[in-house]
Amino acid sequence: MPKPFSQKTLSLKWLEIFQACARSGSLRETARETGLAVSTVSHHLRCLEDHLGTELFNHARRPMVLTPKGEVFLRNIDVALHAIRKATAETSSGDLAGARYLRLGTIEDLDSDVTPELAVFLSARMPDCAFLYHTASSHEIIGMLRDRKLDLGITITPPERMRDLEDMPLLRDPFVVVLPAGRKEPLSDVVSGKASLPFLQFSGDLIIARQVEAQLRRLGVTLPNTFECGSNQTLMAMVAAGAGWTINTPLLFARAKRFHAKLTVHPFPGKRFSRTLSLVVTPDCSRAVLEIVDQKLRSSLEQHVIQPSLDRMPWLKDQFTLID
């Protein structure tokens, strides 16, 4: 026999908590994402199940698993909550001060100057907003945006289409060759693998590694796989120590200030190629928030990244640029 409804009005908070729990399969993870206590998350789920008079989760399973009725309910709730969020964003698109919650993901490439400045700026412009900042790789940020765990991301645009996400290109970041200071080999010999210096590369699961590999494949170049690393700083340290050379970008090179004196940067020989830094958002992100973040990012990138790089490497002019 179904339980009687515990109250007449269905709570939007219950639905949001239910959706988050269904995606993560964990009360603890949902509590971390929402900033609530685990007991509060559990209470919201119990209230929803009592209201509906049915169990939405198999509570004996870990991780949490939806019941058949829970799966049907989730499909309908996904559509309904998307419509509600989109309507809310459009209605409040001109009211930054009234924003209440913003989840923003950024890549590590910007954590020296750009992201901290953006955080201070947004806190001043949106005083009543609770912010969540998450630093991760580009593919992790895009995954979190698709799962609606973030509202907005600053990431490298992947080669494949992003389907339900909207991307706004910010910066063209050309690929360059980075050598230990003092090396005199012709660049063409280095890139073709004819020089004695080993190639040090990014980990294969990163977008940048796939882009570099695709370009080398187009050139018909195969380089021995002697060293892979997911950390730009570690890669720059290895090159500065004379352990090898790498293919990098001005944005990444700008982060490695402590190693600059021991490194030289050169244009990629032959056909140029680049990656794109973009602002990626879910369809229901506030237009006002999107516009103000876009404006601030462009200003910060110009001041802290582009101009200092052009002062050091003027040959990057017209290559390392903001995208209109």
Automatic annotation (TrEMBL):
Protein name: LysR family transcriptional regulator
Domain of life: Bacteria
Keyword DNA-binding: yes
Chain segments annotated as transmembrane: none
Domain HTH lysR-type: 10-67
Gene3D superfamilies assigned to the protein according to its UniProt record, in alphabetical order: Periplasmic binding protein-like II, Winged helix-like DNA-binding domain superfamily/Winged helix DNA-binding domain
Coiled coil: none
Naturally occurring in which organism (per UniProt): Marivita geojedonensis
InterPro entries on file: LysR_HTH_N, LysR_subst-bd, WH-like_DNA-bd_sf, WH_DNA-bd_sf
UniProt KW keywords: DNA-binding, Transcription, Transcription regulation
GO function terms (MF aspect): DNA binding; DNA-binding transcription factor activity
Gene Ontology CC, one term: protein-DNA complex
Family: Belongs to the LysR transcriptional regulatory family.
